[in-house]
Amino acid sequence: MNPILQVENLTKSFGDLVLFRDISFGMAEGQRTGLIAKNGSGKTTLLNILSGKEGYDRGKITFRRDLRVAYLEQDPHYPEELSVLEACFHHGNSTVDLIREYERCMETEGHPGLDDLLTRMDHEKAWEYEQKAKQILSQLKIRDYNQQVKHLSGGQLKRVALANTLIVEPDLLILDEPTNHLDLDMTEWLEEYLRRTNVALLMVTHDRYFLDRVCSDILEIDNRTVYSYKGNYSYYLEKRQERIEAKTAEIERANNLYRTELEWMRRMPQARGHKARYREEAFYELEKVAKQRFNEADVSLDVKASYIGNKIFEADHLYKSFGNLKILDDFSYIFARYEKMGIVGNNGTGKSTFIKILMGLQQPDSGTLDIGETVRFGYYSQEGLQFDEQMKVIDVVQDIAEVIELGNGKRLTASQFLQHFLFTPETQHSYVYKLSGGERRRLYLCTVLMRNPNFLVLDEPTNDLDIVTLQVLEEYLRNFKGCVIVVSHDRYFMDKVVDHLMVFNGGGDIRDFPGNYTRYREWKELKAHHEKEQEKAAHSKEQEAKTTKVRLNDKRRLSFKERRELEQLEQDIAALETEKKNIEEALCSGTLSVDELTAKSKRLPQLSDEIDEKTMRWLELSEIEGA
Question: In which residue ranges of the chain is CATH 1.10.287.380 found?
């Protein structure tokens, strides 16, 4: 494979904090690489450096000449007054810049450089840019192209930004958390899209199924160094464990030898000869190895939940609508003790609204919700991520509790609890404003969990969390002696944590599915296949009935009106074919304005449909005529 990117000895730091030092890696055509690291290790910073949005201390980055790069940021931003379609032209890329250059040329007297521009427009396929934008937006379920950006939800804005990166058909696609705010259908659509395309991909995501199914290589940043694995996420897990075991054995051997050499160093304080100096230098190198530490997470965290009675909550005939949009339609449910429920459904089907009704933050239109007296909620929401920026991490947690009860007389200090969620002692005494987005979410999660709730309600807890933190959280929830409701688009996380699913289909249609997400997906595919087979069988019977009817009427002849229709159809089809040919030639000519290009691009599929429709009717009449 031909190389497209080479990174050599790259170093980046912020003051005393070194994110990575002298890291090197490369990428080739068609290579799909997942980038994995703990929050705060520099994943987003590295992507920003590669996209040219951020500088670096030293090193060398080499791209193949004329390489087309597209970058999806973690939190995209657009001017609020732009429409959806205008947003697709807003962030500069080579095609958009070329279109603007062409428009300026057409507005300039004499059209200087037009021939060269026309050639470049053909080469970049710029004539079809707007049509491609609309096509991809439509596939991402964004169909109101004139809607202003300020009225879009977080998920819709992410999809617009995603369309923006896919339209240009880049050689290298850089994606930072592409599945955040995407619903399950959209995540699976993107997964399939990336698997089909041959574009090179460098991606940060916490979605482990996505990593497993899309990526062919894994890069891991760990302890300021980069490690490369030639395989998918499952392969990476296996090889990473082997690397850790080998490194642990090396450190253990170094420690044994270090103790011996340390005694020698203490016995030999006098001036040393050449051999002794060589041994002294080797001692200091050995000391570096012996003092290495792995910050591996201790995932065995069994925090005691407060007592919860048999009565949890009972929903009785709940209704909730926003205008014509139904969220709950005669919804009734009795929640059981120690139940772990997952909530899934497309964006806009009412998942978060249901949670807010449960938490008392919104009221139903009618119906009752009776919550047990012993229930103590712990609520992790998308809106709850608010801290005093000038506080230290440890102070945020100690303001809630100095110690956390584990049961059986065991307890954890606030500092020990933070270490379980991967906050090192150094980070604990750092200020909140210095934390990365993922570290802030991790801190927020700690503040929710340490209040000893017995009913956890987690609304999209996996967004922006690194994979190591997700593993800690999964283990915590599996051992949690209380009730759990999780709203999440993370399929792997749902499979690990929940016992059953509440599926929000929209329009107030809510179904209970007795299994995890993978089983639900298998059931949906089987159901869709069965319905397709039924449709085919019904269509086959319909065609058989039509055929039988024609065969019984052997003496059928065209009426005068039908004969005239047949003649007219021949003329219409010829005229439509001519119009279609003329439009195709005009689109390839490169002489059309953007408005003409848009109008003709819209007319072309209409023409094809009209030709198909008239041709089918012509064939039907011709068969009768020839009988």
Answer: 553-626
Nearest to 80 by CA among 152, 31, 23, 29: 152
- Label residues 55-87 b or e (16+ Cβ within 10 Å = b): ebeebeeebbeeebbbbbbbebebeeebbbbeb
Instruction: Classify strands 403-407 and 377-380 as parallel, antiparallel or unpaired.
Output: unpaired
Report CA Rg, the chain.
Answer: 31
Q: Rounded distance, CA 434 to CA 389, Å?
A: 8
- Would you tell me how many other CB atoms lie within 10 Å of the CB of residue 393? 25
Residue linked to tokens 């039924």: 534
Answer positive or negative: Cα dihedral of 616, 617, 623, 625: negative
Q: Output the six-digit token pair for 70.
A: 């597209």
Give the strand order in the sheet containing 69-72: 69-72, 172-176, 200-204, 32-37, 217-222, 225-229
592 φ, ψ to 5°?
-85, 150
Beta bridge partners of 261: none
3-state class (DSSP) for residue 32: strand
User: The CATH number of 553-626 is which of 3.40.50.300, 1.10.287.380, 3.40.50.1100, 3.30.430.20?
Assistant: 1.10.287.380
What gap in Å lies between CA 179 and CA 216, rounded to an integer?
Answer: 18
Identity of residue 538: A
Encoding tokens for residue 103? 């428009």
3-238 classified as CATH 3.40.50.300: yes
pTM over 0.85: no
Query: CB neighbours of 42 closer than 8 A, spacing ≥ 6?
Result: 12, 19, 20, 221
- CATH code for the structural domain at 313-515: 3.40.50.300
For CATH 3.40.50.300, the residue range(s) in the chain are 3-238, 313-515
CB atoms inside a 10 Å sphere around CB 191: 18
What lies within 8 Å, CB to CB, of 418 at 6+ separation is 393, 394, 397, 428, 446
554 falls in which pLDDT band (50, 70, 90)? very low
Tokens coding 530 = 């069965």
DSSP, collapsed to helix, strand or coil, labels residue 390 as coil
Task: Tell me what pLDDT residue 545 has.
Answer: 53
Taking only the tens place, the pLDDT of each residue in 127-181 is: 777 788 888 888 888 888 888 888 887 778 888 888 888 887 889 999 998 988 7
Instruction: Report the distance separating Cα 253 and Cα 91, nearest Å.
Output: 54
Q: Please state, in angstroms and as integers, the Cα–Cα distance from residue 330 to each residue in 67, 348, 364, 366, 599, following that order.
A: 56, 18, 11, 9, 47
Q: How far apart are CA 300 and CA 227, in angstroms?
A: 27
